[in-house]
Amino acid sequence: MTITDTHRNMAVLVLLLFSVGAFFSPADSQEAYNTLPETYRKGVDLALEKLSSHTGIQHHFLFFRSITKSHIEPGFDVTYVYHHFYLKATKCEKGTTDSSACQFRNDRPLIDCAVCYKTFGGQIEQDPKPYVHCVHKPSLTEEMKTSRVEHCNTMGYSSGAPTLLASTQSR
């Protein structure tokens, strides 16, 4: 085997790997979302709904990954949830109902979201009003980060619950 044959074989192998990766990547785009506990998925859905309602958004977005997750269960089937995560644009158009074939785009900034809400019996309560704050990641400031945490902690305190970020956290 010559050096040229070796290079050709390596090129074919690399091409094959990329082809297999492209084949499986649509499923991977939903895998992170599907592994989230239901309580956290509801908050992601809330953020996606709010994001899709903006007229300037042209692409379909999907959950990309969690940054911080925390919750408190003060009792009586009540849970306070805080979730900081990223959404990522896909190659699908806004309004796509079946996301299974949507592949992530790498030419758009991530959307940085923080949500906090109260659930009762596994359903998001409307009082206190769920908090959803999403912004393109490059635009997120330290002041915004602080404001998010303060707002969510206030939500917990107003109901007599301990601070959300001092509770059960997972990354």
From TrEMBL:
Keyword Disulfide bond attached? yes
Q: Where in the cell is it found?
A: Secreted
Q: Which residues form the signal peptide?
A: 1-29
User: What domain of life is recorded for the organism?
Assistant: Eukaryota
GO BP terms, alphabetized: cell differentiation; chemotaxis; inflammatory response; regulation of lipid catabolic process
Question: Which molecular function term from Gene Ontology is one that the record holds?
Answer: signaling receptor binding
What cellular-component terms does GO give this entry? extracellular region
Q: Which residues form a coiled coil?
A: none
Q: Which UniProt keyword terms apply here? A: Chemotaxis, Differentiation, Disulfide bond, Inflammatory response, Secreted, Signal
> What name appears for this protein in its UniProt entry?
Retinoic acid receptor responder protein 2
